Amino acid sequence: MTLIETISSIAEYIESGNYYFSIGGENLHPALKCYIWLFMLADDSTSYNSYISQASSTICLSGGCKNSCNPSIVDSILKDGCISDEVKSNVDASGASCGSSSSNLLYGCIGSLSLNCLCEFYTCVVLNSAVVCRCPSIAQATFTTCICPTGYTFSEEKCLDNSCATFTSTYTCSTCIADNASPNSIGRCSCNDKFYGPDPPFKVDSCLTCNEECAKCVENLKCTTCISSNAFVDTIKGCKCNDGFWGIAPLNTLNSCVACYQDCATCPEELKCSTCKATNATPNINIGCTCNKYYYNITALTTSDSCKPCHSNCLTCDNSLTCLTCIESNAINTTEGGCKCKPEYTQIRNLTEDGSCILTTSAICQLGLYFDINTNQCMPCEEYCLNCTSLNVCLECKNNSTYGDQCLPCNSSCEECSGPGYYECTECSNVLLDGVCVNECALGFSQDDNKCVISNSNLPAISFDFKSSGATFIDQINYLQAVAIKKSRQRSLSDKLPFSTYSQGIYFPGDSALEISLSTARVFSGTFSISIWIKPSTTTGTILSKVAESNLLLSLSIENSYISFSLLLDSNFCNIKSQVSIQNELWSHIFITSQPTELNIIVNTILSNPYNPENIPFLDFINSTMYIGSDYLLENYYIGFIYLLNIYPYIEQLKLLAHTNTDCDGCDICLNTNVCIPICNIDEYYDFTSKKCFSCSSSCDSSCKNATHCSLCADDYCIKCSSFKTDSCTECINGYEIQNNLCYPCAGNQYYSSQTLTCQNCPDLCINCLSNTSCINCQENSSLNNNHLCECNKGFTYTASCIRNTFKASLMVNDHNEITIIFDENLQSTLESTCLETIVDGKKVKFDLVKSSKSVYVIIPKLDGTINSDATVNIKGICDIVSENNALLMDIYYQAKLFVSTEYYAAYKLKVKAKKAREMSKAGASAGVAAALGFSFFNLDPTSFFDFMNTAEMFIAAFLMNNTLNLVLSEFLLGLRIGDLLPDFYDYVLPENGGISMPEKFGRMGMPTNLFWVNAKPEIISLIISIVILIFALLASNCTWCYIKLSSFRSSFKYTFFLRFWLQTYFELLLISSFGIRYGNFSSAPQIVSFILCCLCLMLQFSGIVIFIYCLYKRSKLTEASQIELFEKKFGTFFDDFKPTGISNWLTYVFFILRRTALVLSYHFINDGSMQMSIAIGFSLSIPLYILLIRNFKNFYQLCFNLVNEIIIAGYYGTILFGFIYGNSIMSEENAYICIYFIISAWLLNLAFSVISNITGIYRNIKKIIIRITKNRRDRVYRVDTITEVQGKNAKTQTLEI
């Protein structure tokens, strides 16, 4: 049969539900090793036939083909033909060698191109003559992996968005990592409305809350859209209501912005406008808006043209013609429209301004004349007056360059003025500076429209600190140059040019000065202040002077130790002198203030009497020259030091310039920094440590900095500098380099190169180093190697710093939904389940974790039946998971699809049934125990209770055998555990940690670890409760009545109770102690204590067997009734239920002990579950056979019960064994329910036995009572008869005596 015929013969195949298929292998099973030319899924044989031809062919499609092939391959491009059957990996399809690298090839070659796939997920393509990974379209393919764009992580051969917490089936975002974010229209995450953050947000807390007024925003305060529907985005914060609306902040509801009153363009509240819609209206104080003067309205002011213009004569009106009031105060309105002059007045011009109507008597004069009532003639107005009413009252001037009622002319510099002076200008054709019209503003001012305003009220206009070298000093504000005006520029201690000192500013030797040429700059305004520190050597000299066109403008000088200041004001010199003198060779602070109304000199903070000009400001000139250290004639020189010169365009605060001795550090006057200026001579330097002056070295050509530095460079590490400023160095000492003209030591991560005289960066990862080949300390996550260089620690890779390496994991899911997680690298330590988070359908689920190897673990999730048919599992590490290479597991979710099949739902249904079975068994066990105890107390016979306990114990024993029971039966048996019904106060007394885990079955049976006190909890609690009851009984026995009633109870505790306790707990305590020893060790104190307790328990158990054997032997030897009665009072537990006729009747408890001992031994030494079952069945059949043969029970009903009960137990174990033998070791659910029915039958049998025993007991008790009552009556009749006879005899005796 051909392949095509085979395909055709296959029955129709229909797929349904979810399914998966793999090519070449399934999950982790061994894969097929072969070549695949074409993989195709065809709907029918027709499609299949289009790719497979039945005809043979000799055409070779790949090279290296056989002579012919049948069937041949149909290729959509190459047509029909054959392909190579070459299978060697070191040759190509034609058999030609792959070249020099052929020995390392795995997948052959194309020519010389190796087809080895180095991709970490083993899926490659040939692209541009290279073998690269097959990558998603958005990723960059490399030889080993795919590099996804920023914001994506490559996983499962896809670029997964890092902002996603879970994914859809198309791998777009289903849920987002960030709180307050959700998937957008393109499947990535974005912050929700009212939140902002990076797009997309990658962290949980990436999306932050917007301002409460924002519907959307891009940062905290700035909205992009508003919550309120009638609001707009404010550029600074939140939102504001649109024009025509108002609201009270915060605008955080849809209707926060409410409409204004209809007249309002904007409003602060509903009725009051702040601006109006109408352009010629103003807000009304009460409501809405009102039209301005000259305008009226006839409709509501709701449009921009609602206010209409009145007639040009009207001040107010109610229509376009009729005035209500007129602009001209001497006019009245007319019916025709507009206004007219009153009868006694004559109109001299249009009535659009007041004053247009004058008295008729004056109206006869022409313009420029006025009517003189004294001469009754028209007389001419003043020269600059256009219209007047008298010689001194001008109504209108000929131009604006006049002032006053007489139209007097302004100064020629003014366009408008308030007086004749140059300083009384109000408007200028150029700019206005302190009332003076000038062509440009002074230094420290800027032009605003046509006025000069101060640029910065915190800065001087000129500041010289005299800390530069050479003959030129630069102003620090406007960079004016002060140049020494002497031909010789050579520097020496005897030089006559001004020169800088290290800490005392500039020194003027007395034969030179500094000249500042001001060809285009105006220095002073009408208001200014001058601050200067001087230390003169003479009592006379000019400190500062300014001249323009040989005219002195100002001068600051010393005259006989007093400060004098002169200023040219309106062509007159004003002079003021200080009232306090200054001392030579001491520093003094001079402060000059000039205002149009006052001149002041303040010497060392002491104010002298001011000079008060008549509101005349100083007028400075451009194209002028200022001198420091001399008058403009260079005759009156200043000798001494000047430390600092500042000129301010305003009156500076004195407290910001100088302090007096109370604030100074040892001097009378000091800088505002509280630092005293040194008072050394020019050939001395100041030592700031000792605060003393010392002579310069003789080797210094000029002033010096200290005893070792003739250089005045401010930087101690500077050898050469262009000035004495801190940022003027041109060469540094060894170990320092120049940065921005300063000397800097090498940074901690640099070393000094003596070759380049610069600091060089240390090698990568060095914190500090000695050279480029020797590191001292290394950065975080790196350490020194043998070559004294830093390298990244294990698990880190260098990329600008040592970055932790990461590794990935992959998931594989089998059809039982057991998830195998395969790590790319072996883990450093055993993975704990607490380090993983497992999410199914968006919900966290619990799971068990099983280690397969160092890199492979199996996760068994605890799923329920509510998961979707397309459910996916997402697993993520929630703590650091580290590999043997010290790499860190990537912090992403690993995703896989679950197998949600019919089998899964069947398994889930089985779990539900098992849960119900356990609940039923727990309820049944509780009811059975209650009934058995009730009957036992009622009849004072605990036999029913003990029978119930022993039967339950034998049923539960099957759970620990090496057979896998059906889940329903397993859960039913676990519900039978009587120990779970006891009160649990145990956890508060003894610790449960420190144990070694027991097998799973033992754990489910309440024995999670090997610790004795944990596993024996029910037995210990029962013993404690019994002892507490005994204590109460002993205390109650102090009462005489109680003592008699409780005598039998007390006596039972001597022997009977403890023997019965031993019998009932024998099986479980033997099991607990033997397995506790088996799984124990001596690694900790709890283990040692548990071992000792287990040994003690075993000794007690075997001691009980010895006592039991002794009792059998002893009882068999007793013959006298009194001895037997006394013996059975102590040891009746072993004999009470049985006939007293011989030892053969007393072997029931021998079978009891042998059965339980054999079961425990089979758990230890027999691995075959069927063999264990056979042992249990053997005992279950032997016991009823013994009962039938011996009939050893006293009570017939008890005999029947034990006979039938053992047969039920045998049927229970037989059903289990039969199911395993004929079910291939798989127990069916049907067999499980049969076993449950056996257990329920045993319950009912116990209940029936209890009822019958109690009825029989009640009958016997009633019969005894009747017999006792009858006997008592007979006894009373007999006593009466006897008394009567005695009385008769006494009477006869008395008669005879008489």
Automatic annotation (TrEMBL):
<feature type="transmembrane region" description="Helical">
    <location>
        <begin position="1088"/>
        <end position="1113"/>
    </location>
</feature>
<feature type="domain" description="EGF-like">
    <location>
        <begin position="213"/>
        <end position="258"/>
    </location>
</feature>
<dbReference type="InterPro" id="IPR009030">
    <property type="entry name" value="Growth_fac_rcpt_cys_sf"/>
</dbReference>
<feature type="transmembrane region" description="Helical">
    <location>
        <begin position="1020"/>
        <end position="1044"/>
    </location>
</feature>
<dbReference type="InterPro" id="IPR013320">
    <property type="entry name" value="ConA-like_dom_sf"/>
</dbReference>
<feature type="transmembrane region" description="Helical">
    <location>
        <begin position="1056"/>
        <end position="1076"/>
    </location>
</feature>
<feature type="domain" description="EGF-like">
    <location>
        <begin position="768"/>
        <end position="803"/>
    </location>
</feature>
<dbReference type="Pfam" id="PF13385">
    <property type="entry name" value="Laminin_G_3"/>
</dbReference>
<feature type="domain" description="EGF-like">
    <location>
        <begin position="163"/>
        <end position="208"/>
    </location>
</feature>
<feature type="transmembrane region" description="Helical">
    <location>
        <begin position="1146"/>
        <end position="1166"/>
    </location>
</feature>
<keyword id="KW-1015">Disulfide bond</keyword>
<feature type="domain" description="EGF-like">
    <location>
        <begin position="416"/>
        <end position="453"/>
    </location>
</feature>
<protein>
    <recommendedName>
        <fullName>EGF-like domain-containing protein</fullName>
    </recommendedName>
</protein>
<keyword id="KW-1133">Transmembrane helix</keyword>
<keyword id="KW-0472">Membrane</keyword>
<dbReference type="InterPro" id="IPR006212">
    <property type="entry name" value="Furin_repeat"/>
</dbReference>
<feature type="transmembrane region" description="Helical">
    <location>
        <begin position="1203"/>
        <end position="1222"/>
    </location>
</feature>
<feature type="transmembrane region" description="Helical">
    <location>
        <begin position="1234"/>
        <end position="1259"/>
    </location>
</feature>
<keyword id="KW-0812">Transmembrane</keyword>
<feature type="transmembrane region" description="Helical">
    <location>
        <begin position="1172"/>
        <end position="1191"/>
    </location>
</feature>
<feature type="domain" description="EGF-like">
    <location>
        <begin position="316"/>
        <end position="358"/>
    </location>
</feature>
<dbReference type="InterPro" id="IPR000742">
    <property type="entry name" value="EGF"/>
</dbReference>
